[in-house]
Specification:
The protein contains twelve helices and 17 strands. The protein is of the alpha/beta class. A hairpin with a 5-residue loop joins strand 1 and strand 2. It is globular, with a radius of gyration of 20 Å. The structure holds zinc ion. The site of zinc ion has 4 residues, from loops.
């Protein structure tokens, strides 16, 4: 039987050595050993048993709409070039720009999905929800209908800087709309009002709270303890997302939360051109390195950038190395070397473990990235 790619000798994060056969963009066999004679592979990739392979990484919080100045970037820059095979743009565009954004994404190899901003104009300014007229329910619902396979949820940015004097009102509306659409919503929080406690009152199972380690007065901690509302939200099935960002990742908050037994479900960057080039974000792998530094296991971290985000936005064929799943894979090294890592509050630490993406398989195509 002819196949496109046979990958040999990849190490999984749970320390198995596997071979993977790929045909027409799908994984057709995974085994500890696949004999060379079993398939006629157009391409054979020999790994050395030391190089890691995982399902393709998914960054569930990015900004990659190239036509918008404030938060622009390009899907392949935040995607495959850093080992990320799937990116989710979270609210850069709303109903007015989603057609252009969808069209743009087709120029790139990276898989792109969108959480559509409830404000029709997207993030054309920082205060997109300061006028309730920005939420055009009909336009929003029409957009979701047009792009059922592209729009995987809605985004509401619920900090004072965005809603100005509208408080919790945009979220009330967002909750009703997302229930009607049967989609999850991602909610950003930061400056208050509204407070995190108020916001969580309108979130339910399957919704995603992003920027959990923000380090602002309106955060997840009270002193050194995690607020009861956050623990209860996690128990209710609300997904806790990192959303590192320029201003939303405090290493101290993340460490205190870990010490208190609160862990994120998904690790994401909130990356765009400025915090990608100038830091402190740089890439998803840099964000993952911060979790290694904090003592999370590599296996746990990989789950938080593969399986967990795929489940959160209902990507049925992604997130696992499994027969029938999309042939999206990330090949990477974990090396011992000193590296400085910065959080969003100018705190830096020195780690001795770094993650280096080397290649991806995306939709059945092998691409070297280093
Ligand atoms: Zn964001």
């Amino acid at each position: 039987m002819k196949i496109d790619i046979l990958i040999k000798g990849g190490k999984t994060v749970d320390k198995h050595i596997i071979d993977i056969a790929i045909l027409e963009g799908k994984i057709i066999e995974v085994a500890n050993h696949i004999d060379d004679s079993k398939y006629q592979a157009s391409q054979i990739i020999e790994l050395d048993g030391e190089t890691f392979i995982s399902a393709g990484w998914i960054d569930i919080h990015t900004h990659c709409y190239e036509r918008l100045e404030i938060y622009k970037d390009y899907p392949d820059e935040v995607g495959i070039k850093s080992g990320v095979t799937t990116v989710v743009d979270t609210g850069t565009t709303g109903a007015l720009d989603i057609d252009k954004f969808y069209k743009d994404t087709k120029k790139y190899k990276t898989n792109v999905y969108a959480l559509i901003n409830i404000a029709k104009q997207g993030i054309t300014s920082q205060d997109e929800l300061s006028n309730m007229m920005s939420i055009d329910e009909d336009k929003l619902k029409d957009a979701v209908k047009r792009y059922k396979d592209f729009i995987v949820g809605i985004k509401a940015r619920m900090s004072k800087s965005v809603v100005i004097s509208n408080g919790i009102e945009p979220l009330k509306l967002a909750k009703r709309i997302k229930k009607e659409l049967n989609l999850p919503m991602m909610v950003h929080f930061g400056s208050s009002p509204p407070t995190i406690e108020d916001i969580l009152g309108y979130m339910e199972k399957g919704d995603i709270l992003t920027h959990i380690y923000n380090g602002k007065p309106n955060g997840i901690l009270k002193g050194n303890k995690v607020k009861a509302e956050i623990i209860e939200a996690k128990e209710r099935g609300i997904i806790l997302d990192v959303g590192h960002g320029t201003e939303s990742f405090s290493m101290d908050v993340a460490m205190k939360a870990k010490d208190a037994g609160l862990f994120p479900d998904t690790i994401s960057t909130d990356i765009y051109i400025k915090n990608r080039i100038n830091g402190p974000v740089y890439s998803l792998s840099t964000t993952m390195e911060k979790f290694i530094y904090m003592g999370y296991s590599l296996e746990d971290i990989i789950n938080k950038v593969t399986k967990n985000p795929a489940n959160a936005i209902n990507l049925k064929n992604k997130g696992l190395i499994k027969i029938g799943y999309d042939a999206d894979l990330t090949i990477f090294d974990v090396v011992n070397e000193e590296k400085e890592l910065q959080d969003s509050l100018n705190k830096s630490v020195i780690t001795n473990t770094s993650i280096k993406p080397k290649a991806v398989v995306i939709n059945g195509e092998y691409l070297n990235i280093c």
